[in-house]
Design goal:
With 235 residues, this protein is an alpha/beta fold. 43% of the residues lie in helices and 14% in strands. The chain has 7 helices and 6 strands. A 6-stranded parallel beta sheet has the order 3-4-2-1-5-6, sandwiched between helices. β3, α4 and β4 form a beta-alpha-beta unit. α3 packs parallel to α4. The longest helix is centred in the middle third of the chain and has 24 residues. The model has no long low-confidence stretch (mean pLDDT 97). Bound molecules: farnesyl diphosphate.
Length: 235
C-alpha cells in the first residue's frame, strides 16, 4: 500500500493461544509456547517497520485465576523467555521495560525482569513494554495511592493535578500512548488493558489467533490504521 502511516506506538492484546492449541489437540501450554515465538517475531517486525514503542499484554492481573497447571506453565515460559528476550532485544537495539505489579511474582522471576530491563537499558531503538501481572484498574489504583502519599508528604498539591501528572504516576510514565491497539482472536473487549492510555487509540481486531499472527497480519493492521482519520475529538 502506498502512503503507509506507521503508528509510533502499537499495543497488542495477545489472545487465542488456548484455542490455537485446542484446535490441534495440544495442551494449552503449547499454545502459549507458540505465542512466545510469535511475540519474538512481532518484536522484530515492529523494529523493521520503524515503530517506536510496542506494548504487549502478556499476563493480566486476572490470569492468576486460571488453573494451577496453566499458571505454572506460563511462569515456566516467562522464566525462559525473559532470558531469550535479552538476546532478541540486544540484537535489535530494543529497550525492554516492564509494566504491571511485579510484587506478586516469585523472587527469581523478579530478578529475571530486572536482568532483562538492565541488560537492554542502553539500547536506543524501539521500546518493548512487557505487561505482566498488569491490569489497567490496578495500575490506576496504585497511581492514586502514590499520588495520595505524595500529596500527604507535600510533594504535590491538589492544584498540581492534571492529566499529565496522572500519566506520570502510571507504569507507562515514559511511554507514548498507543496510536494503534490490536487484539487477536476476534474478541471485542479491552479486558482491562491500558484503560487510561487508549483514550484516543485506533482499534484493529483480527480473527487470527495470536500464535498465527505474523508480518502479513501486522501489515494489514498498519494498512487499516493508515486509512483512518484521527481527530482526537476535534473536527
Ligand atoms: C491469551 O491466550 C494469552 C495469554 C494469557 C498469555 C500469552 C502471552 C504470551 C504467550 C507471551 C509470553 C508471556 C508469558 C507470560 C510467558 P488465551 O490463553 O487467553 O487464549 P484463549 O482465549 O484461546 O483461551
Amino acid at each position: 500500500m502506498e502512503n503507509l502511516v506507521i503508528p509510533k506506538s502499537i499495543a497488542i492484546i495477545l489472545d487465542g493461544n488456548g484455542r490455537w492449541a485446542e484446535r490441534r489437540n495440544l495442551p494449552r501450554a503449547m499454545g502459549h509456547k507458540a505465542g512466545c515465538e510469535a511475540l519474538e517475531k512481532t518484536v522484530e517486525d515492529c523494529v523493521r517497520l520503524g515503530v517506536d514503542c510496542l506494548t504487549v499484554y502478556a499476563f493480566s492481573t486476572e490470569n492468576w485465576k486460571r488453573s494451577v497447571v496453566e499458571v505454572s506453565a506460563l511462569m515456566k515460559l516467562l522464566r525462559f523467555y525473559m532470558v531469550k528476550l535479552i538476546d532478541v532485544a540486544n540484537k535489535n537495539n530494543v529497550k525492554a521495560v516492564m509494566i504491571g505489579d511485579e510484587s506478586r511474582f516469585d523472587p527469581d522471576i523478579r530478578k529475571g525482569i530486572q536482568k532483562l530491563v538492565d541488560a537492554t537499558s542502553k539500547n536506543t531503538g524501539m521500546t518493548f513494554a512487557f505487561a505482566i501481572n498488569y491490569g489497567g484498574r490496578d495500575e490506576i489504583k496504585r497511581a492514586i495511592e502514590h499520588i495520595v502519599d505524595d500529596a500527604g508528604a507535600g510533594v504535590i498539591s491538589k492544584e498540581n493535578i492534571n492529566e499529565e501528572l496522572i500519566s506520570s504516576y502510571l507504569d507507562t510514565k515514559n511511554l507514548p500512548d498507543p496510536d494503534l491497539l490490536i487484539r487477536t482472536s476476534g474478541e471485542l473487549r479491552v479486558s482491562n488493558f491500558l484503560l487510561w492510555q487508549i483514550a484516543y487509540s485506533e482499534f484493529y481486531i483480527t480473527d487470527t489467533l495470536w500464535p498465527d499472527f505474523d508480518k502479513e497480519e501486522l501489515l494489514k493492521a498498519v494498512e487499516s490504521y493508515s486509512k483512518r482519520q484521527r481527530r482526537f475529538g476535534g473536527r
